[in-house]
Design a protein that fits this description.
Radius of gyration: 14 Å
Structural class: alpha+beta
Shape: globular
Order of helices and strands: EHHEEE
Distance between the termini: 15 Å
Strand content: 25-35%
Largest sheet: 4 strands, antiparallel
Oligomer: single chain
Strand order of the largest sheet: 1-2-3-4
Helix content: 25-40%
């Protein structure tokens, strides 16, 4: 049975993912939030020692992503906390186990 995941790669978000992230988000929200995504990618790549923002790539195309940050001492917790604030999946790839 083909579950739609053949060829799926999970990898760290890259700067060249910006256009695809913006298009996926705009298709879902109806708004262009390029400036917000520019900041998210900049922080994910430059401001974090641990890369937790990931992309799902299927046959060379970014089809989904999770973006977040690792925070220390937030929420009254002395340990580090991973905060995922964006989950995107291209509508054309829903219900395929991605």
């Amino acid at each position: 049975m083909d579950d739609g995941r053949d060829g799926l790669t999970v990898r760290t978000i890259r700067a060249d993912d910006l256009d695809r992230l913006v298009r996926m988000d705009e298709a879902i929200t109806g708004r262009n939030r390029r400036t917000w995504f520019e900041g998210k990618i900049r922080r994910a790549l430059a401001d974090s020692d641990l890369k937790i923002s990931l992309g799902a790539e299927l046959d060379g195309t970014l089809v989904g992503a999770i973006l977040g940050s690792l925070q220390y001492g937030e929420f009254g917790i002395p340990d580090s906390v991973a905060v995922l604030d964006t989950v995107l999946l291209d509508r054309g790839f829903r219900k395929r186990g991605i």
